[in-house]
Amino acid sequence: MKNICLLFFAIVVCLTACDNKTTKPIMQPIDKNATKETQELYNKFFNLREKGIMLAHQDALAYGHDWYKEPGRSDVKDVTGDYPAIIGWELGHIELGVEYNLDSVYFSDMRNYIIETNRRGGITTASWHVDNIATGNTSWDCEQDTVVRSVLPNGVHHTQYLKWMDRLGDFFLSLKDDNGHLISIVFRMYHEHTGGWFWWGNRQCTPEEYKKLWVMTVEYFRDKKSVHNLIYAYSTATVKTEEEFFERYPGDEYVDILGFDCYTSNEPEALVNYKKDMDFNIKVVTDHANKTNKIAIVGETGMESIPNTAYFTEVVHPIISKYNISWILFWRNAWEADKPNHYYIPFKGHPAADDLIKFVEKDNILMNQDIK
Ligand code: BMA
Fold first, then answer.
1. Which of the listed residues 85, 138, 191, 372 has the most CB atoms within 10 Å of its CB?
2. What would you measure as the largest C-alpha separation in the chain, in angstroms?
3. For residue 176, what pLDDT is reported?
């Protein structure tokens, strides 16, 4: 009898353990009041990560290398036949209450593109090159080391900055699907801050000031303005050490996604460094994401004009395939006549177009139709 009891006990323990293995944990974004759709999107990242790495392209629907605002068009789709799984947008200048962003994309169009993407089962992320509130110049105006301090509580520009965040928050709250539900997006704010080229950069504020800026912004949207359709992404510039990555990290309770930005030219030495940097930075973000149940991404990358016709398959693919990252975002294909070489995805007829096709045909690269 004792043996039978023991056997029964063993079976129950085994069944429970097996069940635990098959039941996927529910991942919680940092906003405990996140909308159902936002929680679902966050969990979708974990599920899709098992399948592969999503391709993302900045401004994909608004314009391309030699076109602007052609409904349904995207350079990625022209070349590969499908839309990117994720589309990035730029919110810079929304804070000013103007109609279009710093790259001349109308916010009303951006809203429609986001709705269209959501309808198609695609995902949206957004960055914010917010102007320098102290000088009225762009986010690249980084001469002063007082701007971050000035927007923090009790700072001289704090009240005005709240108005700027308010305008951005209103935009987030205006993103609704066909059922009137808020569309969730990944907000990649105050990026590349380990470099010194934005007013929130590492030569422009102390680590403590940066962290306060981050926390203030999350708490403003989440706790004061009740914006609950955001997933927060922290994306440094390329770092050389783990300490550098975490020196300004606001803490696990304020970040959902970890990433970094890293670019290259086609110079042999630059390529060697790029491979090394990508590998190291992906390791840093995936290690921490795995430890803390978060998502890791490549926030921005690319080779301007893509003079290397094996860039996607031979440079990028082998590195990203070693790690568990959720997506890789290639920067924009500028439409402006004065920026003919500023593009990061080959357009139709470009010498690297075939390489992009081969890249998206890899089993572990996910496009829009793979993530529906
Ligand atoms: C930069 C360049 C700029 C652009 C900015 C914001 O990297 O592409 O031309 O204005 O991003 O999108």
1. 85
2. 86
3. 98
Ligand 1 pocket by Cβ (under 6 Å): 90, 102-103, 129, 332, 342
Please, which residues have CB within 8 angstroms of residue 110's CB and are 6 or more apart in sequence? 62, 89, 101
> Which has the minimum average pLDDT: 9-13, 89-93, 250-254?
9-13
Burial class (CB in 10 A: 0-12, 13-18, 19+), 341: exposed
Specify the ligand 1 atom closest to the Cα of 59: 12
- Residue closest via CA to ligand 1's atom 3 equals 103
Q: Residue 8: pLDDT above 70?
A: no
Q: Tell me, what DSSP letter sits at residue 347?
A: P
Give the pair of three-digit tokens for residue 128.
């914010």
Ligand 1 site-directed mutation target among 330, 332, 335, 344, most atoms within 8 Å of CB: 332
Under CATH, what is the fold of the domain 35-370? TIM Barrel (3.20.20)
Residues 6+ apart with CB under 8 A from 234: 188, 214, 249, 250, 255, 257, 258, 259
C-alpha distance across the termini of the chain, in Å: 53
- Residue 90 CA: which ligand 1 atom is closest? 12
Domains in the chain: boundaries? 35-370
Output the residue whose Cα is nearest ligand 1's atom 8. Answer: 332
Pocket test for ligand 1, best of 103, 261, 304 (most atoms within 8 A of CB): 103
Whether pLDDT at 17 is above 70: no
From the alpha carbon of 58, which atom of ligand 1 is closest?
12
Statement: the pTM of the whole predicted model exceeds 0.85: yes
Q: State in Å: Cα 20 to ligand 1 middle.
A: 46
Q: How far is the CA of 277 from the centre of ligand 1 (A)?
A: 22
Least confident of 5-9, 245-249, 281-285: 5-9
**Mean pLDDT, the chain, whole residue set:** 95
265-292: b (≥16 Cβ within 10 Å) or e: ebeeeebeebeebbebbbebbbebbeee
